[in-house]
Amino acid sequence: MAVRIEIGFREGIRDALGEKIRRRIVQHLHIPVDDVRTVEVYTIDGSLAEEDLAAAARGPLSDPVSQRYSVGIPIASGFDWLVEVGFRPGVTDNVGKTAREAINLLLGNKAPPALDVYTSRQYLLRGPLGRAEAEYITVNLLANELIERCAIVEGATWNRQIAPYIPRVIGEGEPKTQEIDLDVDDATLLKISSERVLALNLAEMTSLRDYLRDKSVLNARAKVGLGRRITDAELECLAQTWSEHCKHKIFNSRIVYEKERGRRAVIDSLFNTFIRGSTQEIRRRMGERDWCLSVFSDNAGIIKFNDDYNLVFKVETHNSPSALDPYGGALTGIVGVNRDPFGTGLGAKLIFNTDVFCFAPPTYDRQLPKRILHPRRIYEGVREGVEHGGNKSGIPTVNGCIVFDERYLGKPLVYCGTGGIMPARIGGVPTHRKVIVPGDLVVMCGGRIGKDGIHGATFSSEELHEGSPVTAVQIGDPITQKKMTDFLLGARDRELYRCITDNGAGGLSSSVGETARLSGGCEIDLKQAPLKYAGLDPWEILISESQERMTLAVPPEKAESFFSLARKMDVEATAIGRYTDSGWFHVRYGEKTVAYLGMNFLHEGLPRMELEARWKPPRLIETPLPEPADMGEALVAMLGRLNICSKESIVRQYDHEVQGGSVVKPLVGAANDGPSDAAVIRPLLDSFEGVIVANGICPRYGDIDTYHMAACAIDEAVRNTIAVGGRLGRIAGLDNFCWCDPVQSEKTPDGRYKLAQLVRANQALYDVTKAYGVPCISGKDSMKNDYHIGDTKISIPPTLLFSTLGTMEDVRRAVTMDAKTAGHLVYVLGMTYDELGGSEWYALHGTIGRRVPRVRVAAARKLYRALGRAMERGILASCHDCSDGGLGVAIAETAFAGGLGLSVNLSSVPAVGIDRDDTLLFSESQSRFVVTIDPADRNRFELIMKGCTHARIGEVLPEGRLRVMGRKGDAIIDEDIGRLKKAWQQPLDF
Amino acid sequence: MKTPIKAIVITGYGTNCEMEMAHACRLAGFDRVDIVHMSDLVEGEKRLDDYDFLNLPGGFLDGDDLGAASAGANRILHVRVKETAERLFDQLRRFIARGGLILGVCNGFQLLVKLGILPLFDGNYGSRDVTLTFNDSGRFEDRWAYLKAEAASPCIFTRSMAGLYLPVRHGEGKFIAKDEKTLERLRRDGHIALQYSHEDYGGATMDYPANPNGSVAGIAGICDSTGRIFGLMPHPEAYLHYTNHPRWSREKLPEEGMGLLIFKNAASFLRNPG
To answer: What are the tens digits of pLDDT across the range A535-588?
Structure first.
């Protein structure tokens, strides 16, 4: 019999969560509410004696100083509306799980054999609200009906009872395996694909049909008891393995690309031609000095840090789940990408996270399309998910950024990146290689398998539609993962396993299927895999994406030590089979074979896509805007733009200092609140060698030409790295493409253009990374970021995030962006062109323009090298790159971050073809910096900069004013830096 | 002079500052520093009895799911060391009785409070007189704070310091006492070792964000009556070198970070007790 334990705050103790909820109801939903209080509810399902229930309530479940508890009797009183929100069956309940473990520990021998604890939370609202308003608040703020259930009770008519509700998953009958006849016509094949959410096209379905007509295949199948029909486990496994998400079909396709004036070219794989192509050439050029160790082949890229350590880096997206459940989606995104470097090579210790979000503006105030959550909710949910995922895992979130654009309304982009460090060798064996020997045990470790995350990989390969599966949404559990990573790092250092990989998209089918390539096959028994609850069919166990799981190859002679360490450290690990060299991916459920696929067919049988791309530059005109009458007000308006303003409120909620190696923090300057360009950390506390993490992203430029969008994103990440003290030749890159569907079809009539946009972005990636010598070491693509329900279609703007991992020999040489001392000289480095196309300045005026910023790689490379030399000599007092908002924003930030004024003369700024002050101030030309130096260093500095575009444009002032003199010698800006800073800080300060 | 002096840093179940805390102990001159997983204590493979200085680092024990460090405290209170009748809590009491030093930082401070080891009035183990609850802001915050050290406190960790500048990184760091009487006693007996202040290390402050969480009397850290058990919300192990300081690129700072002093005080107390 289930009993409810309720916990509330004592009289006089502040309910900070309740207050926060109240503020959000008032400020965001515009409903007057007087008071919100919260009550935590634990529903205990298990036979516990009364005194044991009381002990649990008193002990671990409540705090005697701040809280009071009640067993079986509701605590609520004096409310107008009570809203209770709990999970739906099968949704991960982390708190419930912890409570169950705590009660078991508390009761020891007295603990009941079967105990379950489910949590829910009550919100007690007081205020002049009707039922409609209470429901509105519930649906729009308190609960996500996709994963949560809620009860709404009116205070006036309440009978002082709430019956316990148990969200238990009821298993449905015996696990079964279905067989599907694929010897059918094309239309039926397509129907099977769509009904089962397989996301396989006709060519792919046809190749399955052909495979099952092959005599030798049928003979082999007969021996394990399978016939000519495909099993559901096989079909689902193939759909996962062949998904866009796992196989990057578009990036590997053969593309006929039609350029302007009908000229045609054939591109044999974008990935091989441009991404891998550039990396290969750079590595060849580096020769002996090549510091890339493992690129594109493992879960993350690996480079050398020094002789004894390697660095690992990966960035992933988790867009579709974050659209449906921002908190769970983002939390799963961050703990999911953590497992990538963790499952790379022999496994890496995680040392930083970096996150980039693309949202619609939180101020969005029009009617929302169906099934779309308000951008503010997405913003808050994603922020919180990443907070919990990062902070609780003990990994510093060292930097990131947010891009706002209304076209992210249908699908927000949630990029999560994680870096790691690993010893270069363990037991004399290089850690960056992966080896498995036939006979090694297949071991699953960490969390259990449930129905959560089924079809995640295929789902993310589809647009968001009405029938998007609820099971694709899940909630990560950072503590289960932390326990597992503690254990596995110990097992790694004791050499108890041979190979490790993560269970992400596609679950076991992918982790075992992929690693089995190393030995040449496997045989596993799904019945051995631990489940969260009964009732899963074999195919579900095979492809479930339940979180916090790693797959390992454990040599049989190490098994005993491995499992005993796992038991000791409270981590579940189970052998589910063996790696073989049979050439077959063999999956049983008990004795019965449920899947038997040739390894070669599974991994190489996928037919190649043939696609068409047609580039036609958009017809854009650029009509000059009237020059603003008050340039100071123009600057204030720019500083308050969402894409420019301070993100401090978010940054502070992420722990950016854990692990003790923080050197350049996301917030720097006189008052610890200026925007730093890149993060610098020191992963080894007894060394001054540093790691630099930076990102570049500028989707707006893609409205004009994605070639320049991609070039600028790469330049941005590289110049941010240079700005804090990095240097060319020591920077590795990661490309992360988020596109709208670029495959021409009825649904996507402009697919050829979107694919041409992708081609152009890749061409730029090739050109710029090669010119800068920045090899890509890993990457990712997410190609179906569209929303399509009814007549409404929203596609994201093509978006490339370019992330970089740089190294520096001595972090004590790092430079921050804030002006340091009055009297220092201000320089601008790099040429300013008339390039307002796609700029924030034009966006402020509702226009796009045509002259998009271009990256001039030769000049930039020269400048970056010179700047690096100046930094090595310790000449720079401050260095800030010019990005969104151009020179105007950069000088303002340099000034107010330093708590000092700046005087700048625009007539000294090196420029080409500009005859207006606003263009000089807000052009977003690339590869530029604003730097300050001590006047004593002037000669040395100018000598180093010789041959690079640079000019002294002013000096740092003791008084806090930004004074800008226009081209004609008139004072066009004279603003208090406090006012500028406030304008910059205010928009997202909630 | 005692030698060797040995430090233990406990980890596991969501702890995540063990590496820098161990580093701090090494820099402070401890002869031996071991990072020990909780399961090693439960298995009886390691014992607190073999150490002089117990470090409880920051993190999120069991995700702080039942309130900060609550489930973690529950484990220490009830889990029994394998093949003995002893609870980990008994071992901990023995460690304290033997005169060992304990430093709890952030989640480690929350743990000490929830175990009823701080403030430890009248040697009454397990008594709950104070707690750490949700920040007034309702959110986790990472920001640096000025801390005024109380000269009159017996706290051996904060000896001969006027103040500290350290980061806080928590969502549940608001210190409250059970009642006014408890607060008075904390004051009177010198339990209050560190208080949030302004840059001048003047009086305790309630101004946000100088006081980042709304702690009563600006309390950031307290000790027991002997001064040997100390818990604080700010992170001394996060400021061991000047490059950790948020303004190191603009201020002239000594090589050693301020946080290291806490660990050096512990080492020097153990070397020369009294």
So the answer is: 889 999 999 988 899 999 999 999 999 999 999 999 999 999 999 999 999 999
Same domain, A71 and A140: yes
Q: Does residue B18 fall inside a structural domain?
A: yes
Pair (A93, A16) in one structural domain: yes
User: In total, how many domains does chain A have?
Assistant: 3
Domain membership of residue A695 (yes or no) is: no
pLDDT value for B3: 82
Is the separation of the CB atoms in B192 and B219 below 8 Å?
A: yes
Q: CA A8, CA A11: separation in Å to the nearest integer?
A: 9
Q: How far apart, in whole angstroms, are the C-alpha atoms of residue A959 and residue A978?
A: 11
In this structure, what CATH number is given to the domain that contains residue A138? 3.30.1280.10
Q: Give the pLDDT score at A691.
A: 98
Q: Which residue segment(s) compose the domain that A242 sits in? A: 180-247
Interchain contact B17–A (C-beta under 8 A)? yes
Tokens at A505, concatenated: 């998209």
- Residue A383 tokens read as 């922020």
Backbone angles phi, psi at A889, to 5 degrees: -70, -40
HSE at residue A467, side-chain half, CA atoms within 13 A, is 6
Minimal CA separation from B138 to chain A, in Å? 5
Which residues in chain B have their CB less than 8 angstroms from residue A94's CB?
63, 65
**CA distance linking residue A768 with residue A706, whole number of Å:** 13
| Residue B214: inside a domain | yes
Q: Are residues A216 and A148 in the same domain?
A: no
The region of weakest confidence among A367-381, A442-456, B119-133 is: A442-456
Asked if residue A127 and residue A198 are part of one domain, the reply reads: no
Residue A47 lies in a domain: yes
Residues of B carrying an active site annotation: 106, 235, 237
Q: Which residues, numbered 60 to 119 in chain B, qualify as contacts with chain A under a Cβ-Cβ cut-off of 8 Å?
A: 60, 62-67, 70-71, 73-75, 78-80, 114
SS3 A808: strand
A864 plus A828 within the same structural domain? yes
Report the candidate in B140, B243, B23 with the shortest Cα–Cα distance to residue A659.
B23
Interchain CB contact of B138 with A (< 8 Å): yes
A974 and A930 fall within a common domain: yes
Residue B163 inside a domain? The answer is yes
CA–CA dist B57, B47 (Å, integer):
18
DSSP 3-state of A239 = helix
Which residue in chain A is spatially nearest to B134 when comparing CA positions? A16
B266 in a structural domain: yes
Would the CB atoms of B12 and A483 count as touching at under 8 Å? yes
Q: What is the pLDDT of residues A699-738, one digit of tens each?
A: 999 999 999 999 999 999 999 999 999 999 999 999 999 9
Cis peptide before B4 (omega within 30 of 0): yes
In a domain? residue A858: yes
CB < 8 Å to B186, chain A = none
pLDDT digits (tens, 9 = 90+) for A48-80: 999 999 999 998 999 999 999 999 999 999 999
The tally of domains found in chain B comes to 1
DSSP B119: S
Instruction: Report the CATH number that the domain containing residue B188 is assigned in CATH.
Output: 3.40.50.880
Cα distance from N-terminal residue to C-terminal residue, chain A: 44
Which tokens belong to A22? Answer: 């109240």
**Residue A311: enclosing H or E segment and its boundaries?**
strand A309-317
Note down the domain range covering B94: 6-271
Distance from CA of A487 to the nearest CA of B (A): 9
User: pLDDT-based confidence at A456, cuts 50/70/90?
Assistant: low
Q: In chain B, what's the furthest Cα-to-Cα distance?
A: 57
In A29-82, which ranges are continuous DSSP H helix?
A: 50-58
Token code pair at residue A504: 């992400």
**What span, in angstroms and rounded, lies between the C-alpha atoms of B65 and A101?**
11
With beta carbons less than 8 A apart as the criterion, state whether A594 and A539 touch.
yes
Do A669 and B250 lie within an 8 Å CB cutoff? yes
What's the half-sphere exposure (Cβ side, CA atoms, 13 Å) at A726?
Answer: 30
